[in-house]
Amino acid sequence: MEPEPWTGKLQTLIQRADSSSPVLAAWKTAVKQSGQKVDLALKDRYPDFSVGVAYTQRNELQNGMQGYDFVSAMFNVKIPLFLNKKQNKKVQETQIRQSSIEYRYQNVANSIEQKLQQSLTDLEKNQRLLELYRTGIIPQAEESLESSIAGYQNDKVDFLSLLDSELTLFQFRLDYHRFLADYHKAIADIEALTGTEF
Hints:
Blueprint: H1 10-20, H2 22-43, E1 48-56, E2 70-78, H3 83-153, H4 159-194
Antiparallel strand pairs: 1-2
């Protein structure tokens, strides 16, 4: 079984993770929301004005007299009286929370980048080992086994040497499949970190 050659580069994987990773997307949303909370806290420091108009229709009053319709206008002003005690503290609190969330987002992004680098290193290492085993080590072990079989049939090699050649080939094939599993695990790790399939 021959794996498909891997051609991905670290920078491309980092860009994919930045645009497609569900983990990073969640953190980006958290950063955006914390920025909006800071904006709201800043707006709470200013007076809040509201204007309203109401129309009421009265056909007849309870005592039987004719009612007159009326229009009323309202104007409200909410003034932040405790600016230094309440609103400024809320702004500071939301800014600290935003800094904390941005810091944690950066930590997660750095962690994903580091894990991508490690997975890519593992993948490339296993790809080289698979190529080495497939083109060199296993064919040589197969030739050695065939030679041992021929030598055993001609009484030139003892049974233990034949058995040793068979076990060596078996071990090399086992190693090959372990490297193949590690190769596919590295691809699965990269897919999980980037949020995309390869």
